[in-house]
Amino acid sequence: MFEELPALSADPILGLIMAYNADTNDQKVDLGAGVYKNEQGHTPIMEAVLQAQSRWAAAETTKVYAPPAGFTGFNEGVLQLLLGEGHQALREERAISVQTAGGCGALRVAAGMLQRCRENIKIWVSTPTWANHIPLLGSAGLELVEYPYYNAQQHKIDFDAMITSLATVEAGDLVLLHGCCHNPSGADLSPEQWQAVAKVLLERGATPFIDIAYQGLGDGLDEDAYGLRYLAEHCPEVIIATSCSKNFGLYRERVGAAVVVANDAETAEVCRGQLLNVAREIYSMPPSHGAALVDLILHDEALTQQWQRELGQVRERISGLRETFVQRLADAGAGDRFNYIKDEKGMFSFLGITVDQVNRLKQESSIYMVGSSRINIAGLNDNNMDYVIESLLKVI
Ligand code: LMR
């Protein structure tokens, strides 16, 4: 029966990792998947994580199943990180968190719960959005509808078009918003724009679903949570999917959380039960190692400070790279064409080149990026930047 299965092409993002690893060109450059790299092109383990890991190795006494909702300390820590201390939803005990297998697990489990709320649930996603949102949410049974977001010609958010489109969502629809560091564009909403979005969602009776996989990589941990905190303050119900892959560098440990802010504490409890039931249908309970480390880091003053320092360094390196890249492009003769890159946030920006040019960069120069021309800024460094610029100018 397996011969009935069609062969699939590689995943548009993960396939790049394999293609890059198989490339034997010494000058190859990986600007593909959203993974932080240091100046040496390496993805290091954070010092705070290493310290937590050695403590955990000494303290862990069993490998019995973790609780289905994950560690209580992890979930409390995540809620604080997302909503901020003393948020109204926390005081009123109507926010719950369930530890999941990465941010993908959070999205999938949350979508599974939403799909049970009523029939024919629609979720509005930005154009463009993270490529994996479509299969992840679609396979859970949600119907995807698009709202305009990034104007690729002008390199900025087309906010008027976005609001006009959101003004047509129907009561009970969901609207997926990127909490910060929009993937793939790097173009984030300003506080005023978040407020305008909240207003229109409230008017329409729609529910925000916030995917925040890069908290702390844009402007700071609190700054990056502005939109979600505002929505959680003003909207009766909010869903959040978060990930510790990027801000704790725990990619392979698969640690994230599905968070629900409900109208009241009782409904929040019902949601927790539903999320656990969906997870049980898929993978039963989350992996524990990464979440144990996050729990330790967030409950130890010195480790928290160490982690925040390291995250600050990551953030500053990325914004520094943005500045340098734009400057060197201009110096190399590109004019102000790429200036928008320095105003964008987080790991990603578009180069704004064609698929054909992206393919030429791969074939002729072994420079890897997503077909949309999304690059991972953190993949640039002093050794490869001039080579990337020279190769880019050759194809445009
Ligand atoms: C990305 O967008 O590159 C990352 O989130 C990695 C992934 O799973 O796609």
Commentary on this structure:
Helix content is 45%, strand content 14%. The chain has a 7-stranded mixed β-sheet, with helices on both faces. Strands 1-12 form a two-stranded parallel sheet. With 396 residues, the chain is of the alpha/beta class. The radius of gyration is 21 Å and the shape is globular. The mean pLDDT is 97. The chain is built from 15 helices and 13 strands. The site of (2S)-2-hydroxybutanedioic acid (LMR) has 6 residues, from loops.
Note the main attributes of this structure:
single chain, 396 residues, alpha/beta, seven-stranded mixed sheet, two-stranded parallel ribbon, 15 helices, 13 strands, 14% strand, binds (2S)-2-hydroxybutanedioic acid
Low-confidence stretches: none
The helix-strand sequence is: HEHHHEHEHEEEHEHEHHEEHHHEHEEH
Q: What topology, given as strand order, has the largest sheet?
A: 2-10-9-8-7-3-4
| Number of H/I helices | 15
- Terminal CA distance reads 47 Å
The helix content is 40-55%
Shape: globular
The total beta strand count reads 13
Heterogens: (2S)-2-hydroxybutanedioic acid
Rg, Å, rounded: 21 Å
pLDDT averaged residue by residue: 97
> What structural class is derived from the secondary structure elements?
alpha/beta
β-strand amount: 5-15%
Q: Tell me about the largest β-sheet.
A: 7 strands, mixed
Short description:
With 396 residues, the chain is an alpha/beta fold. Helices cover 45% and strands 14% of the residues.
